[in-house]
From TrEMBL:
<dbReference type="GO" id="GO:0007189">
    <property type="term" value="P:adenylate cyclase-activating G protein-coupled receptor signaling pathway"/>
</dbReference>
<dbReference type="InterPro" id="IPR008078">
    <property type="entry name" value="GPCR_2_Ig-hepta-like_rcpt"/>
</dbReference>
<dbReference type="GO" id="GO:0031410">
    <property type="term" value="C:cytoplasmic vesicle"/>
</dbReference>
<dbReference type="Pfam" id="PF01825">
    <property type="entry name" value="GPS"/>
</dbReference>
<dbReference type="InterPro" id="IPR036179">
    <property type="entry name" value="Ig-like_dom_sf"/>
</dbReference>
<feature type="region of interest" description="Disordered">
    <location>
        <begin position="1328"/>
        <end position="1348"/>
    </location>
</feature>
<feature type="transmembrane region" description="Helical">
    <location>
        <begin position="1248"/>
        <end position="1271"/>
    </location>
</feature>
<feature type="domain" description="Ig-like">
    <location>
        <begin position="276"/>
        <end position="370"/>
    </location>
</feature>
<dbReference type="GO" id="GO:0045444">
    <property type="term" value="P:fat cell differentiation"/>
</dbReference>
<dbReference type="InterPro" id="IPR000203">
    <property type="entry name" value="GPS"/>
</dbReference>
<feature type="transmembrane region" description="Helical">
    <location>
        <begin position="1173"/>
        <end position="1200"/>
    </location>
</feature>
<keyword id="KW-1015">Disulfide bond</keyword>
<feature type="transmembrane region" description="Helical">
    <location>
        <begin position="1016"/>
        <end position="1043"/>
    </location>
</feature>
<dbReference type="InterPro" id="IPR051587">
    <property type="entry name" value="Adhesion_GPCR"/>
</dbReference>
<dbReference type="InterPro" id="IPR003599">
    <property type="entry name" value="Ig_sub"/>
</dbReference>
<feature type="domain" description="G-protein coupled receptors family 2 profile 2">
    <location>
        <begin position="1014"/>
        <end position="1272"/>
    </location>
</feature>
<dbReference type="InterPro" id="IPR013783">
    <property type="entry name" value="Ig-like_fold"/>
</dbReference>
Amino acid sequence: MKSPRRTTLCCMIIVIYFSQATPNLNLESIVHPLILREHELAGKEPLRQKRAVASSRVAAEEYTVDVEISFESASFLEPIKTYLNSLSFPIQGNSTDQATTTILSIEVTTVCRPTGNEIWCSCETGYRWPQERCLHNLTCQEHDGFPAGHRCSCLKGLPPKGPFCQLQGADVTLRMSVRLNVGFQQDLKNCSSALYRSYKTDLETAFWKGYSILPGFKLVTVTGFRPGSVVVTYEVKTTTPSPELMRKANDQVMRNLNQTYKMDYNSFQVVTSNETKFTIVPEIIFEGDTVTLMCETEVLSSNVSWHHVERHSDIQNNSRFSVYTFVLNNMTSISRLTIYNITQGDAGEYICKLTLDIFEYESRKKMDVTPIRILATEEMKVTCDNNPVSLNCCSEINVNWSTVEWKQQGKINIPGNPETDTDSGCSRYTLKADGRQCPSSLGGMRVTYVCEFISEHGARGSKSIEVTFTSVANLTITRDPISVSEGQNFSIKCISDVSNYDEVYWNTSAGIKIYPKFYTTKRYADGAESVLTVKTVTREWNGTYHCIFRYKNSYSVATKDVTVYPLPLEPNIMVDPLEATIPCKGSHHFKCCIEENEDYKVTFQMDSLSFLAEKEVNGKQVCYKYNFMASSVSWCPKKLNIFCHFTNAANNSVQSPSMKLNLVPGENIMCQDPIIGVGEPGKVIQKLCQFSSVPSSPGSPTGGIITYKCVGSQWKVKKNDCISAPINSLLQLAKALIKSPYQDAKLPTYLKDLSVSTGKVKHEVSSFPGSLGAIINILDLLSTVPTQVNSEMMTHVLSTVNTILSKPVLSTWKVVQQQQTNQSSQLLDSVERFSRALRPEDSTVLSINQTNVQMRSMVIKPGHPKAYKQSFVFSDSDLWGNVAIENCQLGNLQRDSSIVTVAFPTLKTILAQDVPGKNFANSLVMTTTVSHNITLPFSISMTFKNINPSGAVPRCVFWNFDLANHTGGWDSSGCYVNKVDEDSVSCVCDHLTSFSILMSPDSPYPGSLLEILLDIISYIGLCFSILSLAACLVVEAVVWKSVTKNRTSYMRHICIVNIAASLLVADSWFIVAAAIHNHYHPLNKTACVAATFFIHFFYLSVFFWMLTLGLMLFYRLVFILHDASKSIQKTIAFSLGYGCPLVISVITVGATQPQEVYTRKNACWLNWEDTKALLAFVIPALIIVVVNMTIMIVVISKILRPSIGDKPSKQEKSSLFQISKSIGVLTPLLGLTWGFGLATVFQGSNAVFHIIFTLLNAFQGLFILLFGCLWDQKVQEALLKKFSLSRWSSQHSKSTSLGSSTPVFSMSSPISRRFNNLFGKTGTYNVSTPETTSSSLENTSSAYSLLN
């Protein structure tokens, strides 16, 4: 470049050279008048080979040639550029036989212009100076402060040795598309179809020819077709071309493609993705941050859009999103998206898209938004003791937090000092609180401290810490020193001035907790107190005790020393003799023994006399003796009580059980024994077994009492309640255990020892009822101790039970039963208490199997529990049973509840019977318990093997511990027989306890022939009764005016109407009672009481209105001259008819319902088994029957032998005859009905009594209609007249003989003739008894037969 004023144009020419020989190009004709670069003509390769193109015949190679064109005048620049841009490519060059040259494209890369005294060379669009030129040459931008890191686009002077401006960027893949205005065919979706291959071949050929003019072009590939019309997608691999060059290439494509494809030139689109720099600040984004997303590209355009992929939406400016796009220094396009207060919903992939002409420059980046997670202890307890306490907060992700702030909220203000460690991302808040800041009146006050982490970009994350400030509890304990002797009591009161605590407990100086039943705790508004109370002190209570109030991890402790002086407990002092007979001149040795050797002062006391005892040591047993001389007493015979007193070092004393002494003359003494003593014939005395002739070991004496009787001249054993030495030792330990402060800790070991010892002494248990009773007492004592029992403890318990329920021991149980004790019920109760306390270690079903007892248990876990179904099989006893509780029932139980079922095959033979020889358990006894309260209604199903004797009826029963004065008995309340098969009985109960089936030979069970028969009779009769009573009331209403013309008739029909109405209401309540029995529901108990009350009341009303009818007859016949007014008679009648029944009913329910013994356990009727409340109905009813029968006798005598003046009017006489007939018929019928009713009360009654009673009871309404209403001649006449049957009525009224009476209502038998002759011509009034509706819930369908 010789002239500095010369303008230079540098071009890049892409040439394809086809040759079979070595290339030897002469470009002179092509570039003339161009000047080639110097270094390209001087021995170096003048051309830059770019790509070899495969050809079938010749080798096609592509070259890029840099050409420099210089002008003398700058005015030539633009015309030449215009000319070059107007050229159509490719241009065919010179051709020879061996080579062909084709120019694909010519691009202007560099333009040098004179500027002042300098030449500035700048790059055209899409080109940049190489980096090395920008470093070693002066740039034009030095004066403009061009940003560092950007390649320069303008240099001062053309580099003398090149290179010129080059294409910017590396190879890119352009994702392009173009539309063909032809119809879309489905074969274009199938890449293997002929149409697809044809389109692809033709299009790729055109694309190759068109895009090969692009600098750096390498490849073009059709990737697919999609509808609309036909959209062709393809990819071009090249360097980034300029828009002008891309348009030229697209023109070439259009020219090279067959016009049948109808390509739309305006539909070309280009997307490139590696031209944009995409950055996000900050790198770690928290919720609440202000986030900046920035796109930078060297493509100059302000047409930038942002898109959120997950939301499928373009981002527009609003309150949270801000988009700002600008061009920096006319070289870089920058678009900035700012998101304020970012949320997790803003996370996802973002697209920044810059559009320039047909080019779309796209860049994507995914952004994650992380919530700020602060780790801290959510709750803390701080004691106001002025000690520093630190609250700590740490961020889960450690970043450079801008700041950490601490705030507090609460009624009290306790500030602290914050410290933040930026390296660890933690902050500590240290505070101190003293008693003045949180006085005891505000003990337990909560303050919320909040630590808030703030990021550099505005995100905030906080965590709340609930701090409870409690003042130190000041405990005040009993000040007086505690010094007691064994057997006495003491209490320690521990008072706190703070009412807020989590736990209060007592323990010993060794750290062993005292069993909770020994202390009680109360909370008050301004404090609390706990009292440790020991009613019977043993030596184990000697020591130091700590009263501990705990709140969270703070403990307040007060201590107290307890000194216990040894002193034998009264039950542990063994005396001999218990009772002795001494001749007036004789003597006897008395002694008191204990199982310890302490220094006691022991005296014997008799009346006011006191004698020192002589000490004797025999192994572990220490006895104190005294030889009594009868001569020391001034008179004889005499009865004396002798005691021995033990006094310890604390001067406390205890008195032994009394020893009875009988001083008698010696003439009648027949029985003499050196051990038992002397006695008169028939004398009965008791001795402790260890002092009798029963063998015992010195180390472990025999326990219990043996009873002797003087028979002839010898002492005979009357009753032996001795306890074997091992069992007696365990009994004494059990008594000591329940008084021990560590009883729960000692219990597991003791149960194991009990199981082992009981197994070793099976023979003694089967031989001595006393040993059996002792084991039962031990289990009863121990069952009150545990709050929780594990599987090992339960195994030991059932092992012991298995031994005492074995078949060899059953004979001993019979002896126990004969003594009228409740030990079998006591055993069952003990097992149930252990079962309720059972807590298995795991969730699986626990199973324990012994010969005479089996147990199954299951723990209810949250979720959907499985149904509880357990089976028990005892092959030795040939018995089996199942128990089931549905999962819908288990879902109502508390979480972690334990269900335990224990089955006994032999217990049935030892539980008390209802009536000896009548009712007896004849199956397994299964007891099911739940550790927590159950929710009503509850249902349990059980199946028992049926070994039912012929004729017996199974009843489902449970063992009620409250019956028989709390000795227990079988009860059927809440249980019923669900199904009876040949080999099984299925029961359903609505509660949990010990279940069995009871064989009753008297009552019919559901499904039996007798039950069905009684059911049919009851309900058919009830329907007739209700219809008849309704008809009776209708008839009375129709004929009322015609039949109440005199006072006597009026009162008679008043009684009839009230009798019918009362019985109708009673029948209605019978239906209610039956419905209650048939549907089990918690409200049934209250409804059953109401039904029973109204049935009782209205039945009595029927009887008392019958009594009113009888008394009215008696009054009218006996007191003829006395005539009371109608109002007075009505007042007396209603008072007697309803007042007396009301008083009786109210008294009955008031006396029995508070104890819940008003109704039967299984029926809505008056109780018979427990309170005999049924007598409140039976006695008044039978008394009324007797009174009415007596009245009838008086009336008969008055009619047969009337006195002077006994002449009532004709109408009144007719009414009196009607009353007499009604009473004469209905009263015997009523008495007969309830005579059969009483017969069904007692067991052993024949089924015939049930049937007759049900028949008579069910049809009473029909009897009243027939004998009380329609049998009345006046009623008949009034009805006939009412319905215009006057002819028949007149003939009928003139008839005076029985034969002329209405055939329908006449009584033609000899008996009826006598009644007619006695009481008149027409039929008698019948008031039948209302027992029909007496309901028994033992069997609703057999209500009548089970009423009694």
